[in-house]
Design a protein that fits this description.
The protein has 265 residues and is of the alpha+beta class. It contains seven helices and 14 strands. Helix content is 35%, strand content 25%. The protein has a seven-stranded mixed beta sheet with strand order 3-4-5-6-7-8-9, sandwiched between helices. The longest helix has 23 residues. The radius of gyration is 17 Å and the shape is globular. 45% of the residues are buried. Bound molecules: D-MYO-inositol-1-phosphate (IPD) and calcium ion (2 copies). The site of one calcium ion (CA) has 6 residues, from strand 4.
């Protein structure tokens, strides 16, 4: 398998469906918005259509591969290769006209991620990496930030939509981070948060109750850019999304210990 060629094909595909998303965004109306399992877990025909478009093309790249897609439009399971797809990460932004949303695609070979692409549609920024490669943004190599001090760092997070059982601990963590860093951002697309860690824009990103499609592409790119990705206990985890802390590596232990102290107590 030539991962580099495959990755560049996925980059081209992401740009193609990104153009479609941008055009459809101009037409989206309230009646296009549906709720999934919770009132605030939103989806539109664009999420579903893009997933189908992506799967149709990916099937031609690796015929025997399976698909783990957020919208569940394919139930095919691959013996070796499985694509992990979030066709539209940032659906709430998309619906509300906030121009930060992305396409996120990762390829899993057995249990290992071997390729990741995150395409932020409105700025036309494509972040990507493949097995043993560097990480790239629109053809230029990127790497995580070299900041060594919390005082010099900008962090990103996301708030849960439905799993509020850890909210008090989460707010205590936010209070601590707000006081000892340059600030905290919630931009509304976990895949973009991760891509920004890879590009050195954020020193770290953390969130809980995410899913594999939210993080697999971006988490892989963070590692290829020299960063570190673990759960809140400090164990490497690029796939589950249950808890994720992705950082420049240098600040990882400090962040992980602060999060664990409140969240895992
Ligand atoms: C959401 C975004 C958001 C995160 C949510 C995710 P979606 O994905 O990544 O930043 O906070 O938890 O569900 O629903 O827009 O694909
Ligand atoms: Ca998502
Ligand atoms: Ca989505």
């Amino acid at each position: 398998m030539n991962y580099q060629n495959l990755c560049m094909d996925v980059v081209a595909l992401s740009r193609e469906v990104g153009r479609f998303m941008k055009e459809e965004n101009k037409k989206i109306r309230g009646s296009d918005v549906e709720s999934k399992e919770h009132f605030n877990s939103l989806v539109t025909y664009v999420d579903k259509t893009v997933e189908k478009m992506v799967i149709a093309k990916l099937e031609t790249f690796i015929p025997n591969a399976g698909f783990i897609g957020e919208e569940g439009t394919s139930d095919k399971i691959g013996d070796v290769y499985n694509w992990i797809i979030d066709p539209l990460d940032g659906t709430t932004n998309f619906i509300h006209g906030v121009p930060i949303y992305s396409v996120s695609i990762a390829l899993k070979e057995n249990e290992e991620i071997v390729l990741g692409v995150v395409y932020e549609v409105n700025l036309e920024e494509c972040f990507y990496a493949w097995k043993d490669s560097k990480a790239y943004l629109n053809g230029k190599e990127i790497s995580v930030s070299s900041a060594k001090r919390m005082e010099d760092s900008l962090l990103a997070t996301g708030f849960p939509y439905w799993d509020f059982h850890k909210m008090d601990a989460y707010l205590r963590i936010m209070k601590d981070f707000t006081a000892c860093t340059r600030g905290l951002r919630r931009i509304g697309s976990a895949a973009v948060d991760l891509a920004y860690v890879a590009a050195g824009r954020f020193e770290a990103f953390y969130e809980y109750s995410l899913k594999p499609w939210d993080i697999a592409g971006g988490a892989f790119i963070v590692e290829r850019a020299g960063g570190k990705v673990t759960d809140f206990s400090g164990n490497r985890d690029l796939i589950s999304g249950k808890e994720i802390l992705a950082s420049n590596g240098i600040l990882h232990d400090t962040l992980q210990q602060k999060i664990a102290k409140e969240f895992l107590a």
